[in-house]
UniProtKB/TrEMBL annotation:
Organism name: Deefgea chitinilytica
Protein name: Cytochrome c biogenesis heme-transporting ATPase CcmA
PROSITE patterns, alphabetized: ABC_TRANSPORTER_1, ABC_TRANSPORTER_2
Keyword Transferase listed: no
Keywords recorded for this protein, A-Z: ATP-binding, Cell membrane, Cytochrome c-type biogenesis, Membrane, Nucleotide-binding, Translocase, Transport
Domain ABC transporter: from-to ranges: 2-207
Domain of life: Bacteria
Pfam families: ABC_tran (PF00005)
Length: 207
């Protein structure tokens, strides 16, 4: 369970939201909505432990994430606007390196299988800089399928993907939540119908 209590966030000198209290249970699949600049990315970064709140607490289970540190990071996948890929390395090397740095090394077969699942079997050895935007997004998404983690925090994960890949990602999100995972994602796009049980959280009306 992920919970936030009396959370307030400020960027620059602007208060984005305050007194935000929410609980996300196992199986929750949440579409974080709201107008540009309302603070959706900021909230995802706070939940990922990448930035600090002005006030309030975020807890995973019974413990504060600030206290859990690496034990909390090992529970989540965060995919931001930037794909966090090393442009000179291949999708294969990127995925293997990321998994190793996170303390979950993957076998060569597991890396290749994940890349095949995201449709990059033929591009697995090309430098990321030579891939299209959608292929780069797929390379980043390979982390989700390669290493199971209960919490997925995804910022605009559908951007750059073709219709089929959007549907596929929708299916993975849906399966993840059906299996007791939590997914919180932002999207200004139409959500694929492959995510049937979606909760909407509009940050504009929570402010
Ligand atoms: N590093 C920063 N320094 C100062 N202000 C920032 C910084 N990052 C974001 N902001 C401001 O914080 C506000 C919220 O930004 P955020 O990216 O969280 O919005 P968002 O709801 O995700 O928007 P969008 O729908 O456009 O992606 C914006 O007004 C933005 O200008």
């Amino acid at each position: 369970m992920l919970s936030i209590a009396q959370l307030a966030a400020q960027r620059g000198n602007r208060l984005l939201f305050s007194a935000l209290s929410l609980t996300f249970q196992a199986g929750d699949c949440v579409h974080l909505r709201g107008e540009n600049g309302v603070g959706k990315t900021t909230l995802l970064k706070l939940l990922a432990g990448l930035t600090q709140p002005l006030h309030g607490e975020i807890s995973w289970g019974e413990q504060k994430i600030a206290k859990l540190g690496d034990d909390y990071y090992a529970q989540l996948h965060y995919l931001g606007h930037k794909d966090a890929l090393k442009e000179l390395l291949s999708p294969f090397d990127n995925l293997q390196l990321t998994a190793k740095l996170a303390g979950n090394p993957l076998s060569e077969a597991a890396v290749l299988q994940a890349l095949a699942q995201v449709g990059l079997a033929r591009q697995s050895d090309l430098p990321v800089r030579s891939l299209s935007q959608g292929q780069k997004k797929r390379a980043a998404l390979a982390r989700l399928v390669a290493t199971p983690r209960p919490l997925w925090l995804l910022d605009e994960p559908f951007v750059g993907l073709d219709a089929k890949a959007q549907e596929q990602l929708g299916t993975w999100i849906s399966e993840h939540c059906s299996n007791g995972g939590i997914t919180i994602f932002t999207s200004h796009q139409i959500i694929p119908e492959t995510i049937p049980n979606l909760t909407e959280l509009n940050l504009s009306v929570k402010k």
